[in-house]
Specification:
- This protein is an alpha+beta fold and about 450 residues long.
- Among the domains are: about 150 residues, Structural Genomics Hypothetical 15.5 Kd Protein In mrcA-pckA Intergenic Region, Chain A (Roll), CATH 3.10.290.10; about 160 residues, Pseudouridine synthase (2-Layer Sandwich).
- The chain contains 10 helices and 19 strands.
- Strands 8, 9, 10, 11, 12, 13, 16, 17, 18 and 19 form a 10-stranded mixed β-sheet that branches. It has a 4-stranded antiparallel β-sheet with strand order 4-7-5-6.
- The longest helix has 13 residues.
- The termini are far apart.
- The N terminus is likely disordered.
Length: about 450
């Protein structure tokens, strides 16, 4: 009989003191901040939850990973934070808790020594033959936890004799040269970078804007700058009263990098608190336009299915079925999620334009729910796994246009909410961007 082992995670919880208006602490100096070490049971669901919110369990202690264990102990003795195991570089449109707006200083702290950001090349010996790659690299490099190394491998930062290796369980080959090239740490505080922003509304409390596809919302590994947060700092830096004691925009919700549409951003702590509570309570109106493969039956309805991390692909989300064992009846390993949809138009029985309304806000919710119903979004690089059979129903020219669309055809078209200070009801609407508009025009111009 197999028994599940119990592992424990050491997490260093930093409690920064409140800062006076306009004050900015220097760099990464944490010496003035009180810290306490909290050890918690390493529960897989809790770990997934941390990943979903841009965090990762720090210093995971694995009985089979002596390097990680030594690292946690060394950092504990020195009173330093343990290097993070790597946060997901993934945007989502899930409402945030107040004070949890994905500020990089809180969520993307790698705390790696400078030498750990350089490329490490290690020649494998006969004694290393067959060892898991993540364990081999963690032990030979030192200073990086095994979970951090695993994340770096999955993100494509490891090679064998110059060829990329993305499987942490890869068996090391004697005589081969392995290299690991960790990316440079993201700056603790984003820099202001001027960029064109499509501002729909702005007052002293908030900004409503139309985000273009291709723009990442906030800095993260792989997107250290050129993000919406960088642009907002340049646009309204002097007007920001401060979120959490620092002058920065309050990101209340996010859109995926390649999803376009309307977002609201807080400029004050009070607005951030009120908007965060509105998103958490779903006391707002959010609608999306989605171009999908096939024609939904019924033409309008509600999709209610829990969403959680995919069982084998950590970069994807999935509809999660109820657990058959190890939990209460009907329990799931995901979060409750509800999407309402209505078919606006359809073409050749092959493609449809849907208007979707979020009743909850989970990571990739619309994309996951529609793919689960066998109606994946046109162009979706994650959830469109093969050429849809419905594409054969389209004229060749149109089929090629839809199959070549370079991103998920999803646009946040409506956002309505109560103003956090005045209480007035605000509603904003946005037409799809040019690339999606051209595709819809091409569909509409074709005879059915």
């Amino acid at each position: 009989m197999l028994r599940r082992s119990r592992r424990w995670t050491a997490r260093l919880v930093l409690r920064p003191p409140s800062l006076p208006h306009g004050h900015r602490s220097a760099g990464n100096d944490l010496s003035h901040r009180p810290a306490r070490l909290r050890v918690e049971e390493d529960d897989p669901v809790a770990v997934r939850s941390l990943h979903e919110h841009g965090e990762a369990p720090l210093g995971r202690r694995d009985p089979q990973d002596p390097a990680a264990g030594r690292q946690v102990e060394a950092h504990r003795r020195q009173g330093r934070a343990t290097p993070a195991s790597g946060a997901l570089d993934e945007d989502h449109d899930e409402g945030h808790r107040a004070g949890d707006d994905h500020h990089p200083h809180r969520h993307n702290q790698d705390f790696e020594c400078p030498h750990l950001s350089k490329t490490h090349e290690i020649a494998a010996t006969e004694a290393d033959q067959g060892t898991r790659l993540d364990r081999f690299l963690a032990e030979r490099i030192g200073g990086l936890s095994r979970s951090r190394v695993k994340a770096l491998i999955e993100q494509g930062h490891a090679t064998r004799d110059g060829e990329a290796v993305t499987e942490p369980a890869h068996a090391v080959r004697a005589g081969a040269t392995y290299a690991l090239s960790p990316p440079s740490p993201v700056p603790a505080r984003p820099e202001a970078q001027a960029m064109a922003l499509n501002i729909l509304h702005e007052d002293r409390d908030l900004i409503v804007l139309d985000k273009p596809a291709g723009l990442v919302v906030h800095p993260a590994p792989g997107n250290a700058d050129g993000t919406l947060v960088n642009g907002l700092l340049a646009h309204a830096g002097e007007e920001l009263e401060g979120i959490g004691g620092e002058k920065r925009p309050g990101i209340v919700h996010r859109l995926d990098k390649d999803t376009s549409g309307i977002m609201v951003v807080a400029k004050t702590q009070a607005a951030h608190q009120a908007l965060s509570e509105a998103f958490a309570a779903r006391d707002l109106d959010r609608e999306y336009l989605a171009l999908v493969w096939g024609v939904p039956n019924p033409s309008q309805g509600e999709i209610e299915a829990a969403i959680g991390r995919h069982a084998t692909d950590r970069k994807r989300m999935a509809v999660v079925e109820p657990r058959s064992r190890g939990g209460a009846a009907g329990a799931t390993s995901g979060k409750h999620a509800v999407t309402r949809y209505r078919t606006e138009a359809s073409w050749f029985g092959a493609a449809s334009l849907l208007r979707c309304k979020l009743m909850t806000g989970r990571t990739h919710q619309i994309r996951v729910h529609l793919a689960h119903r066998s109606h994946p979004l046109v162009g979706d690089p994650v959830y469109l796994r093969r050429i849809p059979a419905a594409s054969r129903l389209l004229p060749e020219e149109l089929r090629e246009s839809l199959l070549a669309f370079p991103r998920q055809a999803l646009h946040a078209t409506t956002l309505g909410f109560k103003h956090p200070v005045t209480g007035a009801m605000l509603t904003f609407r946005s037409d799809p961007p040019k690339d999606m508009e051209n595709l819809l025009a091409q569909l509409g111009a074709m005879p059915r």
